[in-house]
Design a protein that fits this description.
By secondary structure, the protein is α+β, with helices and mostly antiparallel strands. It has one domain. Helices cover 40% and strands 18% of the residues. The protein is built from three helices and three strands. It has a three-stranded antiparallel β-sheet with strand order 1-3-2. The protein is elongated. The termini are far apart.
Length: 89
């Protein structure tokens, strides 16, 4: 007696999962799903990282912090000499 040569259930389940992931990726990149983008954007603000805004590079380094150009709560980016200061403590 020969075994059936059809697709196994495992193969079908993996194909359905791969198709679902592909559809989600397409929806994210076309902008139809924007919630993840908003979440990641909120993680890139100065306040969400525990920083103070706006400070100069010199003031930040004098207080022992790390200076970077993350956006502040208003979404405004500052010049290269003024930005977000994240405390190291």
């Amino acid at each position: 007696m020969k075994k059936a040569q059809g697709l196994s259930i495992q193969t079908i389940v993996l194909a359905v999962l791969a198709l679902f992931v592909l559809v989600v990726i397409i929806l994210v990149f076309t902008g139809i799903i924007s919630v993840p983008a908003e979440f990641f954007q909120q993680q890139l603000t100065c306040e969400s990282r525990g920083g103070q805004c706006p400070l100069t590079k010199e003031d930040c380094r004098a207080s022992g912090g790390v200076f970077n150009t993350l956006a502040c709560g208003s979404g405004e980016k500052y010049s290269e000499n003024q930005g977000c200061c994240i405390s190291q403590t």
